[in-house]
C-alpha cells in the first residue's frame, strides 16, 4: 500500500529544544524567576504563545497583552541567534539513514511542526529540499494535540490519514497523530510516550526490518 511519513522537527530531526530552553530561561530570569529543565518539558511541542503562558504561570507573573507580545519577539530573537549558527552536524543520529531509506523506497515524507521557524531550520541543516511538503506553525490555527497540522500534511502528500506514519517526541504530538487516526511513532521515553503505537529511544533504533513490516 502507499504510505507517507510526517516528521515533527524539534526533538526529532534536530535538538533545538536546548535553544528554546536557553531563550525561555533568560526571559524568566529577566522577569525575576528561575526556569528549570524539568519545567521546560511542558513546553515541548507547544506553540510559542502557549509556551509563554505556561512560563508566566510558573513565575506567577501577570502581564499586559502588549508586554507579552514584546517578550515573544525578544524570545524569538534570542532563539534565532542560535538557529542562525546551526549546521547539518546538528541533525540527530539516525535521521539521514531513515530519510534515505524512505527515498530509496519511494515513500514521500512531510514535515508537521508547530514552529514558525521550521523552514529556516530545515534550510540551515540542509534538509529543506528533501521534504515533499512542509507544514509549520504559520499554516495552522489549532496547535497539537489538535490533529490539524498532520491532517494538512497528509493532504499535501496526497495520502489518507490512516496511511500516514507520524514521528514525534512530544506527548501533545503523539495525541495529535492518534486523533488524526495515523500510526504514531514516539521518539524518547516509553513511559512518557505511552500513548504512541511504537516508541524508540532514538531514530537509530528504527530498523529497516521494522520499516519493511510497517509498509507491507
Ligand atoms: C515546537 C517546539 O516544535 O515549536 C516548541 O517543540 C516551540 O518548544 C514551538 O515553542 C514553536 O516554535 P517557534 O519556533 O515558532 O517559536
Ligand atoms: Mg518535537
Question: What topology does this entry show?
Answer:
Elements: E1 4-7, H1 17-30, H2 37-40, H3 48-59, H4 65-84, H5 95-104, E2 108-112, H6 118-124, E3 133-135, H7 148-157, E4 164-168, H8 171-179, E5 183-187, E6 198-200, H9 208-215
Parallel strand pairs: 1-2, 1-4, 2-3, 4-5, 5-6
Helix pairs in contact: 1-4
The chain binds 6-O-phosphono-beta-D-glucopyranose (BG6) and magnesium ion (MG).
Quickly describe the structure:
This protein is an alpha/beta fold. It contains 9 helices and 6 strands; from the N terminus they run E-H-H-H-H-H-E-H-E-H-E-H-E-E-H. It has helices spanning 17-30, 37-40, 48-59, 65-84, 95-104, 118-124, 148-157, 171-179, 208-215; strands at residues 4-7, 108-112, 133-135, 164-168, 183-187, 198-200.
Question: What does this protein look like?
Answer:
By secondary structure, the protein is α/β, with parallel strands linked by helices. The protein is built from nine helices and six strands, in the order E-H-H-H-H-H-E-H-E-H-E-H-E-E-H. It has helices at about 15-30, 35-40, 50-60, 65-85, 95-105, 120-125, 150-155, 170-180, 210-215, and strands at about 5, 110, 135, 165-170, 185, 200. It has a six-stranded parallel β-sheet with strand order 3-2-1-4-5-6, sandwiched between helices. Helix 1 packs across helix 4. The longest helix has 20 residues, at about 65-85. The termini are close together. The mean pLDDT is about 95. The site of magnesium ion (MG) has 9 residues, from loops. Belongs to the HAD-like hydrolase superfamily. CbbY/CbbZ/Gph/YieH family. Its cofactor is Mg(2+).
